[in-house]
Amino acid sequence: MARLFILLALLNPLIAVAGDSGSQIAWTQDTIQKVKSGSAERGKNLAETCKPCHGLRGEGTNVEIKDGETLPAIPALAGQNPFYMFKQLRDYYNGDRLHESMSSIAKGISEEDAADLSIWFSSLALPIQEADNQDFKKAKTMVSQGDGKRILPPCFTCHGADGQGEKIDIPSLAGQRSDYFERTLMQYRSGERHNDIYSRMRLIAKQLTKAEIKDLAYYYQQLR
Amino acid sequence: MVSPADRKLTIFHLWVAFAAFIVASFLGEYQVLERSGFIPALDSPTVYFASVSTHGVLMGFVLTTFFIMGFGYYTATTSLNTPIWNPKLAWYGFWISLTGTVMAAVPLLTGKASVLYTFYLPMQAHVAFYIGATLLVVGSWLWCAVMLVMFRQWKQANPKQPVPLAMFATTANALLWVWTSVGVALEVLFQAIPLALGWIDTVDAGLARTLFAWTLHPIVYFWLIPAYIAFYVFVPKQAGGYLFSDEIARAAFIVLAVFGLPIGFHHLYMDPAQTSSWKLLHGVGTLIVSLPTLVTGFTVIASLEIAGRLRGGTGLFGWIGSLPWTNPMVLSVILSLLMLILGGFGGVINASYAMNAMIHNTAWVPGHFHLIFAGTTVIMYFAIAYYLWPMLVKKPLFSNSLALVQLWTWFIGMGILTTPWHVLGLLGQPRRLSSMVYNTLLTLAWKPYELAMIFGGLIMLCSACLFIYNLVKTQLSPAPESFIQEIEYAEPIRPVAALPEYLNDFTLWNRVIAVLMAISFGIPILQFFFMDTYGSPGWGY
Amino acid sequence: MDEKERQRILESAPVGTFALLAVVLGSMVIAWLFLYFGVFIPRGIIH
Amino acid sequence: MQIELLIQKCQNLIGQAVDFVHDFIRQSRSVHIDDLERKWINITLSVIGLMIVIIVLDALIHNIRPPSKVETIDSARLHLSKEFAESNLGVQLDGNGDVIVRMVAGRYSFFPKHIAVPAETKLTLRWVSMDVLHGVHIPMTNMSTMIIPGYVAEITTSFPKPGEYPVLCNEYCGLGHNHMWSNISVIAKEDWKAPVQNFAKKEPDNG
User: Fold this and answer.
1) Considering A106, A123, A140, which residue would you say is the last residue of a domain?
2) Taking CB atoms and an 8 Å cutoff, what residues of chain B touch D84?
3) B502 is a catalytic site residue
4) What is the pLDDT of residues B190-217, one digit of tens each?
5) Looking at beta carbons, which residues of chain D come within 8 Å of B268?
6) Domain limits for position C41
7) What CATH number has the domain spanning D75-191?
8) What is the ipTM of this complex?
9) Is 60 exceeded by the pLDDT of residue D142?
10) Is B432 a catalytic residue?
11) What pTM, to 2 d.p., does this model score?
12) In a domain, C3, yes or no
């Protein structure tokens, strides 16, 4: 795995630019216009190639064991905040976010394609995952009240009361695959994922325990 | 004699005003209860900030605008002895404003517009909220038109005659409001609505705050002037005396209107978008504009002194005891002036340039404006309502003693609510917190004050209900066979002999306002178009 | 309260008001000076 | 020819203005003001004058002013600018040994989340917002300023008393507003050690 990263680092001159800026994307007037001018139809056609992994309706998959090999979870894209998705695709393109397959796939996605895909997937309804009868008392308090001692703001203040995401680029969480959700928070926690500006998400994830992360993952997966 | 149609117009406005008032009073008590953490189950930022936005809009825009319009119509028709000019236009104004209020109330109550009553661009609310607020203001402009036309018509019909003081002040208020509302209208029409509809992608937050600061001070004088009108034209008569000086009253209203406009930057002292010299110019202007309030205090209390002595009061302060304390108008002016002292002092501290850093955006600020608006101004709204209701519905007031109890409880509740609030401000508690989650010793020091505020709010909530109860019972009680009560305006001790034209007309003062506004707002607004500023995209909340 | 007494009261200067307000204004000035020099200035430089 | 006409017009205008002022004053004298009320007006004006004099002198001589350096910055590109890049935030010594603090306000915290500054020292703090309006206030001190997106809020202040202070957001910035705070340690002057970072030039790179 480590060799792969070094290989990618050498391949891609852009990685070394502003090392700790988190991401190259800035919500200036023209970037906003680029995303807004994305067209859903072009996005629909482009999205055909995403279906094999992200599912027919962009609902993603949890960790699966298929003929002896564990396949990692794949995020749900349906109903995602278009600005957030555009930023992720461009972060992959610029190398601010790394993934063994997405990094190379993103190389083939131009800015217009990214905008079209983002607008298309945001037009889909948020995925509805199977309900879960766990009582999420601890998760609910973290989501609605946060934790004053650790200066943790409640999750809903940024991600929206129903986990639907918020203007301008805060991602939706409702219906997200719990394994992917957990992996993401763990990556933020370890710093492996670092395309959040001023480490906003990393600083929060570092103060969460593994149990809390698992709780939140299941809570948001069943949120509709 | 006021025609039934004009009475209907007035009372419709007043009922919308007081309906908004009672709803917002309940929200106010909920907020104090929620914020103190006394009942942890209540804790919810979503509901709290939707409530604060609604409480602010209902009290600051709906109660005030509708009360001022209703009271303005009744003052105009009774002081000029002419029916209201163009009642159709007046009713259009009413329905436009009411539609705007409902249109704004829907997103507010569903949590789609929790951006508070000061908008806070680049945060974005539902577009219906901004359009509703705009319609409310447009409706009030029609009221201004009716007032100005009636003023102009009366002057043509009575050349060289001094306009009755009540009408003169109401027209000054209408003019002040036209000048005042330009700032917020520019911000909403060119920034908030286009951003909400997606016509533009970014707005300059510095420009938005500067335009809103244009409106932010004179709007509080727009609310305060009806209280001062009652001070000058009702109180002396009700106290059994005469108005100490008519000319000084007119001069005070003029200075309030003219100098209330160009001093908005005391709301922007801590802002990085304006230089310190503009702030100093506005700061000096703000301190100067405390003059008309202090002169009003002198003139009104002098009128009360004369009235007290005529009723047998002797010695330096004997007149205070012999005033008719059981007359709601007299009791409320005394309580109002007491609150004006502390409320006004809080305002002078806010206005003192760099000292504003001590209490900017802390709990001191809501403590100040609840004391001076919800106290000094709204208690006079009560007194005016108690005085006008019998004339509007042709029935005696349901219970005079209940009115006195209501006024006293409002005053006492206000004291218990705002004194801790000022102390919390000095202790550095920020404004607009839905709960105290800071993990520091400081928040423990705040606890007792927040709990005290619950009781202040509770007393005021009961007082508000008493007020509405009294008015409703007055309106619903059976009409006595003959009930005649006519409005009585105070006469000055010295009849107004040769009144200079500039104390009887506004053309000169319009020009002075235009010049002052050009000086104090011209460059600070134009600077945004000459330096390379960067817009910010719209954000949720 | 005959007419002459009424006229005298109407012409009289409001000394009670003046005394009352002088006390109020005086205490306001003292409170302002206390807050300005006692609380604000000692809290440090600001510009 | 026009110039004479113009001058003539100006003279008329000035003449009118002077006449108007005379007329204004003459009429004002005709208005009867009770002597005690006139005295009250003079006393009020002198009290207002006293406050204005104190404020203006303090502003001109001791430079006691509200924070008002008007400086724009592209708040969308803060993280890409040199001055407000993540590594350049926090407490530093600038070229001539003065303490300068760069902070970014973003929903819902101030970054960096904990800083240490010397007591009784002139500090220059530069605050920027990455999203909406914020206000920052350190209770019991004069460190209070609004933070507007698109502008750098620069304030120069000092902390007389050492101790642990909360840094509170005091402007409504969203539903998480009451969770937006961080910490500052004001350390006695002699115990404070300057951070070892390099001398970052103060000139802002607007990105």
Assistant:
1) A123
2) none
3) no
4) 999 999 999 999 999 999 999 999 999 9
5) 146
6) 14-47
7) 2.60.40.420
8) 0.90
9) yes
10) yes
11) 0.93
12) no
